[in-house]
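Appendix B, example 12.
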Amino acid sequence: MKVRDIMTTDVVSAKRGTPVNELAKLMGARDISGVPVLDDDGSVVGIVTELDMIVRNTRLDMPRFIQILDLGRIPLERRSDYEHRMRHMLGTRAEDLMSEEVVTVSPDDSVEGLAELMVKRRVNPVPVVENGKLVGIVSRADIIDMMAEEMEEPPGEQ
């Protein structure tokens, strides 16, 4: 079975400047696990997931250091990593929260390959891109629905 057979084609998407509260309302109202962020040409430039939204309600971990006697402190992470976490937690627009390294698939990829990708890379949902443009999206729920349908089919009709 191909990704095109289970993907949702009526994709809810956002722009970089979409307010976070609007994203939260969209995700809740449509019961979706993520929203692709598109540029003006319709290309996927990021994705905001449920996890990105939930991170906003966690505590901000302060940067860690190693103290060397009274000589000084050595940071255990880059300052930019801390600034990224802070922007993610305090951001007000999609571009502040979105993951920019988006894992995508093609409509002609196999569902088996998609499932493996979702498990190994821990991604959900996965935008479906064809010729550089968003054409669909697949979530874990879509794969579960496919499995449920296959289990209902009488033997010999598969």
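The longest helix spans residues 140-152. The chain has a mean pLDDT of 86.
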